[in-house]
Amino acid sequence: MFIKAKLIFSKSLSLPHINTGKKMGIQLVVFDIAGTTLHDESNVAKVLQQAIKLAGVTVTLEQVNEVMGYAKPYAIRYLLQQQQDSRYSDEAFVLELHSRFVADMKAHYATHPAVREKDGVSAVFAALKAKGIKVALDTGFDRDITNVILERVGWQQKGLIDAVATSDEVPFGRPYPYMIYRIMEELEIRSIQSVAKTGDTISDLEEGTNAGCRYVIGVTTGAYSREELEKGPHTHLVASLDELLSIF
């Protein structure tokens, strides 16, 4: 004897939307901070260069620029290793240099008169949000530095950003995709094909590509030139963020 079961769904629940193959629109744009949304006059590179100099190691700004966008402890280890300094494998020593870098960067972002958003950034954030697109930030900085920046520029207070991920909040920073995935989880974004990544370094482009973002957009007015960014994986290159509005 078979008993016919009746399946009952609560009216308070609904099934999640299933993507049936229809191309999705952009629901989230993840922006880098320094050099992309925040005005930068090689300040990050100069402070990192000075931190390395504390170890008695001289590196050029060109060498430092190679690691812009990466988590800063990794950048310090890489620069020491490139100079054949065996202390690159000494975790305590690297963290000591990183602590000096963090302190100097926090002081810079808290007090320096040149600290400001890049032209038109707040307007672009507002325009994206008016289209129903979420705006997020990710960065090679740790949370301490990032909080000082956010306090200074006021994006959160104005309701212009929906989420922020920093390199010390994930197992690995750029070029790994984990900051993007962390933001997607927080904002309940289901598909990476509805996400765009925007930044001014090769590590930004690699991060977006490794994540599988639909759009990976390089900003040519930051740490890297157009010619340099053309060597990295990307879907678009722009000179200013307001060009994003036509892409989306």
Automatic annotation (TrEMBL):
GO terms for molecular function: phosphoglycolate phosphatase activity. GO terms for biological process: DNA repair. It holds the Pfam family HAD_2. Keywords: Hydrolase. InterPro entries: HAD-like_hydrolase_sf (IPR050155), HAD-like_sf (IPR036412), HAD_2 (IPR041492), HAD_sf (IPR023214), PGP-like_dom2 (IPR023198), PhnX-like (IPR022468). GO terms for cellular component: cytosol. PANTHER family: PHOSPHOGLYCOLATE PHOSPHATASE, PHOSPHONOACETALDEHYDE HYDROLASE. This is Phosphonatase-like hydrolase.
